[in-house]
Amino acid sequence: MSVTIRLSRTGRKNQPTYKLVVANTRDKRNGRYIEVLGYYNPFDPKQKFSYDKDKFEKWKSNGALVTDAVNKLINGTYEYVKYEPKKAAGKEVEATKDEKPAEKEDKKPTEVKEEEAETTEEPSEPEITEEPKEEEKGE
């Protein structure tokens, strides 16, 4: 069986903390694990990341796969990015849409009439009228 060294999420809502665990590759992210190697807390600057180097090297030498996030944490290049749902971004877009109609309302009525006059100066299509049909006489 394949074994992976990865992060398992713990903590409360909007305040995640992670355990550095050795787990079966097919198990769930927060599921059963074989051994805990350390922890990572992105919100605590004093005790941000610590792990047992001897255990880590033992598992790695035995063939355990290491995830990209764990590699970056160990190398010191990992940057935690807080999740922002799409709904929050959608509300910002709606707010900018609401501002645009307000700008149009600020225009004076004379300015609006001038804009309408400019649009009517363009050539318009000729009107089509229907000619009365002749009644057919029955023989």
Give a description of the structure.
This protein folds into 2 domains: 3-75, S16 Ribosomal Protein, Chain: A (2-Layer Sandwich); 86-119. A hairpin with an 8-residue loop joins strand 3 (35-40) and strand 4 (49-51). The model has no long low-confidence stretch (mean pLDDT 76). The protein is of the alpha+beta class and 139 residues long. The chain has helices at 53-61, 68-75, 86-105, 109-120; strands at residues 3-12, 15-24, 35-40, 49-51, 65-66. The chain has a 5-stranded mixed sheet.
Major β-sheet annotation: 5 strands, mixed
The figure for the number of domains is 2
How would you spell out the order of helices and strands? Answer: EEEEHEHHH
Shape assignment = elongated
CATH topology of the largest domain: S16 Ribosomal Protein, Chain: A
Proportion in β-strands:
15-25%
Helix content: 25-40%
How many beta strands in the DSSP annotation? 5
Lateral arrangement of strands in the main beta sheet: 4-3-2-1-5
Could you name the CATH class of the largest domain?
A: Alpha Beta
Let me know the average pLDDT: 76
> What's the oligomerization state?
single chain
CATH superfamily of the largest domain: Ribosomal protein S16
How many angstroms does the end-to-end distance come to?
96 Å
Architecture (CATH level 2) name of the largest domain: 2-Layer Sandwich
Structural class based on helices, strands and sheet pairing: alpha+beta
Count of helical stretches: 4
Task: Give unreliable regions as ranges.
Answer: none
What's the gyration radius in Å?
34 Å
